[in-house]
Amino acid sequence: MPKKMTVALALCAALALSGCSSTQAQMPQDQTHKKAAEATASPSPSESARQLTTAEVATTAGAVLATELGFPNSAKIQGKDLEALATPPTDTLKDIVVLPAQCSAPINDLNWSPVQLGTEAARTDFTNANQSITGSVEVAKLGANGAAAVDSHNKNVRTIVEQCKSAKLNGMDYTETLKFSDPKVDSVDSALYYSRDGQYAQNSLVLIKKTKQYAVMVSFVAGSSLADEKFNKVATSVMDAAIAQLP
Fold first, then answer.
1. What's the longest Cα–Cα distance across the chain?
2. Is the pTM higher than 0.85?
C-alpha cells in the first residue's frame, strides 16, 4: 500500500464514506481491506428493480448474518467505489524499506482482494454499534485466470506466516512494525492475523476461500485486538453464509 494513507480513523479505503486524509502513514492492506460503513445501506429504486448478481446475493447474505452477530450497520460498496477497489494500487512500497527484504513482495501482495479479478464482484461492509470494529464480505467470480490469482495470493500469505512473523517498514518520515500470525482457521484456504504499531495502530483478520466459481474474502479491522476465537467464528460464519448462496 502507498505510504500515504487515504484513510481516516473510521477505517475507510481509497473511497471512504467518511472524510479522508492524504497525509496519514499507510501500510499494505489498509486500502483493500478497510472501508467505513457508517450507516445502514438501503437499495435505490433502480437496484430494487433489477435482479441481483450471484456475488451480490452472496455478500448480502453474509451481511445479514453479520447483523445477527452484532454488526447491524452495513453499506454496499458499488459504482465508482467498487471500480476503484478493483484497480490494483501501484507504487505501494515506494520509498519504503522492508526488513527483512524478502518480505517486501509478499507484504506488498496484501493489497490484493477478489474484486481485482475484474469479473462479476460485490462487497458489503458492516460495523458494530460503536463502530470500533469494521468487517467486510467480498465475493468475485473467478473467471478464466482467477483460480491461479487466488492461489498465488494464498501462497504469499503462507510465506508471510512462515517467514515474516515480524517485519519493519521504514519510510522517509515514519517507521512501524508489522506482526503476522496464523489465526488457525481450518475451514478456509487462507487465514492471516496481523497487527501494526505506531501512530495508526490497528489489528486485522483476513480469511479467503475459493469455491468452484467464486472467491470469497471476509475481513475485520479494529484498533483493539482481534486475537480472539470469537472473531474467527464470526468471520467464518459470515463466510459460510455467503458461500451457501454460490453455485
1. 52
2. no
